[in-house]
Amino acid sequence: MAKLESLGIKRIEGIHYYVHDLERSRRFYTQLFDFAETWRSGPELERAGRQRSACFSAGNINVVCSEPIGPGGRAARFLAKHPDGVGTLVFEVFDLEHTFRLLEARGGTALDDIQTFQDEGGTLRQFSITTPFGDCTFRFRERKGYRAMYPGAVATPAGTGGKNRFGFAEIDHVTSNFQTMKPMLLWLEHVLGFEELWHVAFHTSDVDAKRKTGSGLKSIVMWDPPSFVRFANNEPARPFFKSSQINIFNEELRGDGVQHVALTVDDIVSAVRGLRQAGVTFMPTPASYYEMLPGRIAHSGIGKIDEDIAILQELEILVDGAEHHAYMLQIFLKEAAGLYGDSKAGPFFFEIIQRKGDRGFGAGNFRALFESIEREQQKGQP
To answer: Any idea which fold 9-155 has?
Structure first.
């Protein structure tokens, strides 16, 4: 297929997250993540949309959380079908009419025509389209001096919430899970004009072919080269399709959708230490992962890393890479349902990532973690 003309995306501006309990989200972002609360929905917007919203920001990251105010609004419709989850991804673009024209010509399905809003700073224009995964839509925006985060938003007092002391900077990538990901891959390629960047396939049966249960996945990353916007797409892998972590996510979300969003930091060791002290809970990593880590580093092509492995083990930070002294460090928060002890909070989670020259997505960590879990399980057998 010939390379398509770029949509003119600048960046992922943020995510719109539908929640049952906005106050709980407010505590998480402002007290644990140290995000600032920058905007709230005004009374007119709340009456029209039948939902109450707040925007939490750090660096160039924006998370808008909305809870229903009675039936009929977008948040209520989403939450009638799903637990808490990402319902919209928002992109800033250079030329909205250019983006709209290309998407329409390629078969993109718009929810509305271009809408124009003005405030004392300037103009905002936007439109939304449907996508092949669940009830998540994409919204495209062009800003020309417009100050509010979204139409109808009211600025909160300066200093509301945190100071971003953990150094969150950008959205690195968005990962979504599907029962079958091919429709999404084709849509990203033929409608959005994205290209394949990276792929991996792995299953626990690769470690132990005799096992009777297991979990596996296929993952393909698509990207928009001009903006470096990246989407990782996962589907479950046989032979244990139903027990795959990907399939379990889809069952818990009750459909395809965004599994996690990766947020960049400049110093993951300091960030994770501070987040743990603040009360953030991360997915555990077996000790055996770190027993094998020096060998993985030596034989992977990385050669060496700057960090002390003992400190990485203490904080349970993962390492991956494939080239000389080019690697990445990553860690995953516990899913929201586990963080809050409430199934309605859903299976979404955040990843925290620091890139040190590597552009991958942790392929080595898939295998290393599965192998580590296998060894831990074997230790517990008589």
So the answer is: 2,3-Dihydroxybiphenyl 1,2-Dioxygenase; domain 1 (3.10.180)
Question: What are the extents of the domains in the chain?
Answer: 9-155, 168-379
* Fold equal for 9-155 and 168-379: yes
Chain position carrying tokens 């620091």:
354
* Other C-beta atoms lying within 10 Å of the C-beta of residue 314: 14
- Residue 198: per-residue pLDDT: 84
pLDDT at 202: 72
Q: Which CATH class is domain 168-379?
A: alpha beta
**pLDDT attached to residue 228:** 96
Contacts for 123-127 with beta carbons within 8 Å, 24 or more apart? Answer: 124/148, 124/151, 125/96, 126/96, 127/96, 127/100
Q: What is the pLDDT of residues 355-371, one digit of tens each?
A: 999 888 877 776 665 55
For residue 128, which of 153, 93, 152, 94 has the smallest C-alpha distance?
Answer: 93
β-pair partners for 91: 12, 140
